[in-house]
Write the structure tokens for this entry.
Amino acid sequence: MDDEQRASVEIAVQCLQSVYGTDSVPASQVPDLKALFAHLKQPLSEEQLFERREQAEIIKNEGNRLLMAGNKKEAIEQYKQAIALDPENAIFHANLAAGYMALESYELAAKAAQDAIDLDPGYAKAWARLGNALKHLKRVTEARNAYEEALRLDPGLDLARKGLDSLSASPTASNDSLGGGMGGLADMMKGVDLNKLMSDPNFMQMANQMMQSGALNDIFKDPSTLNAVKKNMKR
């Protein structure tokens, strides 16, 4: 026994002395620490595993009830408890992702969804929830890939379909898919009569939406885009 181990045993003895209210502890009452740790490391029986999984399912359902009631933080705690009992259940991790999404903790939501995918790569809903989290983190290409994988696994998954459609409809999302970045937008504007576009009510409505979202501010920070607009304005 080295000095560190001896110090640990002395601390344990002191704790026992405090519990028994005595300065000396009978040898028969000193626990066999090696046997204790060996017992803790023993794998659970099938019956014990079944009971833990059942308990975890009950806790997860309570988390669902709390989330539906708007008690987001309490729901997250329930999901964490369920995971502690049954850490390899991908559904629990995906539900935790949903809880974090409701709390707008998107980084944590992405991690929980990825944990679910790592456990079950074929779990379409986990891919869709990863897509939702990545979309809010402005990681649009990764979000699109996640949605597409979800739909590949489950073509009828509404969560993934709506998420993918929202990327196509979002003005800010389009910036990530222009190929050449902001310069790609400048290339697209070559040959466009901006004056005609300005008289198009549909175009003006879209431009107004982009302005309100802040997307236009980002786009016009690019010098090549500004130059393209100025050239078109001079026509």
